[in-house]
Amino acid sequence: MVIRQVVNTVFNSCSYVLVQDGASWVVDCGDIEMLLPLIKGQLRGVMLTHSHFDHIYGLNDLLAHFPHTPVLTNAAGREGLLSDKLNFSRYHETPFILDTPEDIRLVSDQERLELFEGISAQAIYTPGHSPCSVTWKIDDALFTGDSYIPGVKTVTNFPHSDKRLAGESRERILSLAESCRVYPGHPSQLELDL
Ligand SMILES: [Zn+2]
Hints:
Blueprint: E1 2-7, E2 14-20, E3 23-27, H1 32-35, E4 42-47, H2 59-65, E5 71-73, H3 75-81, E6 104-106, E7 112-116, E8 119-125, E9 134-138, E10 141-145, H4 163-177, E11 181-184, H5 189-193
The protein binds zinc ion.
């Protein structure tokens, strides 16, 4: 599996494209101009780390290119996709609501799904930064969104953040990270310092 990173223009959020066997998956979706050239073959789905604006704003454009692609999130993530207030896009120049709610596929905590032959993803709920935060464990890669960015304090001052839960989620991620490589929702401080 090849993993490619895109750093988006809005808040430097990160999207990722996973490619194997001539098919692709995407983790979070910002600027699709940078994302599209990296997607090979069939786009099987989009996994969301959470539905804050900067991690979802390209979804309508992406799904226009790849109709009926499932968007994987939890129940709180679904609410965020359908509310420009909950996903905070209302407070930016371009309010965002997902045009195709029928494409949303809810995942439960710890649920596993096969991405490619021999490679599965596990959805691990990591609430705190947001109730919709999900960390995706894919092989030995951990897509943590904003629940854990190495060298950066987890942001918990949003209206629906929960500092205690964020701490617990961070601990859970740190123990998983011992045997995994971390792909965060924004470049880590370590990368920014380079
Ligand atoms: Zn966020």
